[in-house]
Amino acid sequence: MKLIYNSKKPMDAHESGQRGELALIVVGVLLTLRTALLVLVPSALGFIGIPSELSNLIVNFGTLAVGCAAIPWILSRAPRPAWVVVWFLAVALVISMLFYGGGVALLGAFGVDLALGLIWLLVMSSISDFRSFRRLLYWGGYVILVATALQLVRTSAAEDEVGYSQFLAYVALPAALIFADAAFERHAFFNAALATAAGVMVMSTGARGPLVTIVLFVAIRGALKMRSSPRLVLLFVGGGAALLVALQYVRDSLLSWLFETLENLGLSTRVVTRLLEGTLLEDRARGALAQHTVDLIVEHPVVGLGLGNERRHVAVLMGDSGPSQWTGWYPHNVFLEVLSQFGVIVGSLILIWVAVKILRAVVATDDMDRSLTALIFVGMGLVPLLFSASYLSWPQFFALIGVCLAAQRLHTSPSALVREAK
C-alpha cells in the first residue's frame, strides 16, 4: 500500500482514507503479534538489564498507542453488526454479574482479554485491503518464528528440559498457519520449510491442540486451492494418500528419531510420547469437563448460567469450590460453553450466526485475500476453542468475527471501498 502524505498541505479525502487503512492494518497485525512480542521484547531488552515487567508494559502500551491512533477510522468504518456484538456482550456481562453471581472473581479471569478481543474485532471489521494485511502479516510470521525459537533456546539452556507450555505453542501457531498458507501460493518449498519449522517448535512445547490445528488448516487450505484446478485435486489426494502409506512403514522409526532428537535438545517429548503410545487424543479431564457441562445445560436449558458463570458450577463439580479455582474450570469447548452460558435457544442462535458468518467469509466470497485471512483466523481463533481455551479469554476469536463482518460489509456493499477513500 503506497501512502503519499505531505504535512505542509491538508490531506484530501483519498489520502486520509489511505492513511486510515494503513493505520488499521498495522494495528491488526500488531495485535496478531502481541503474544510473540511479549516473548521477544523481554528477551531482547533483558540483555541491557530492563526487567521483563517493564518490557511487557512497553509492548502493551505501544500496541495501545498505535490502536488509539486508529480510533477515528474505527468509529467511521466499523460496521453496525460489530458494534451490536460489542454491546450484546457488554450487556450480557453486566446481567451475569448482577443476577448470576461470580462477579469480580470471574471478571478478573477474562475481563482484560475480552476487552482486547472486542477492540480487535472492531479493528478487523474496519479493514478493507486484506491483500496488504496478508502481506504485512507474512513478515510478522518471521517475528513469531524468531520469538519462539529464542524462547525455546533460553528455556532449554536454563533447564534440563523444556516443560509442557501451551502458551508458547499458541505463540508459534500463527507462524505455522501463515507460512503454510503462503506455501500454497509462492515459494512453496521455502514457505513449507518455515511452516514445518514452526510445527516442530509447536511439537517441542508438548501441546497437542495447536498441532491438530495445523493439520486441519493444511487440509482445508488444500481443499480451497483445489477448487481452482481438477488436476490439483488428483495431486493433493494422491500425494496425501501416498504420504500416509509411506508414513505407516516409517512411523515408529521416525517418531523414535524425533523423540531422541527432542530429548537431546532438551525439548519436550510429550507429544511424541503420546503418538508412540497411541494416546494423542485421550484426555480424561476434558471428558469430565464436557460431561459436567452437558449436565449443567440439561439443568439450565432456558436461560443458561450467565456469561462465564458456568466456571463456578463446573469447578464445584470438579471438586474445587473456592473462587480462586473458578477461572480454570471452563468447558474447553466453545459449543458447550455458549450453550451453558446462554441456554439452548439463544446459545444455538448465536452458534448458528457465527457458523454462517464464518462460512460466508471463507467460502462465499470472490476475494481470496479476505477468504484466506478468515481461514488463518479460523485456525488461530476458532479451532483451538474446540478442545482448549475459552472464547472469553481468547481475543483471536473476536478477531475472526471481525474479519467475517468485514468480509460481509465489503461483499454486500461494493461501494464501501469508494466511500471509505473519500
UniProtKB/TrEMBL annotation:
It is a multi-pass membrane protein. Residues 196-350 form the O-antigen ligase-related domain. Its main location: membrane. InterPro entries: O-antigen_ligase-rel_domated, WaaL-like. The keyword rRNA-binding does not apply. The chain crosses the membrane at residues 21-45, 57-75, 82-100, 106-124, 136-153, 194-220, 232-250, 338-359, 371-391. The keyword Metal-binding does not apply. GO terms for molecular function: ligase activity. It is found in: Membrane. Keywords: Ligase, Membrane, Transmembrane, Transmembrane helix. PANTHER family: LIPOPOLYSACCHARIDE BIOSYNTHESIS PROTEIN PA4999-RELATED (PTHR37422:SF13), TEICHURONIC ACID BIOSYNTHESIS PROTEIN TUAE (PTHR37422). This is O-antigen ligase family protein. It comes from Citricoccus alkalitolerans.
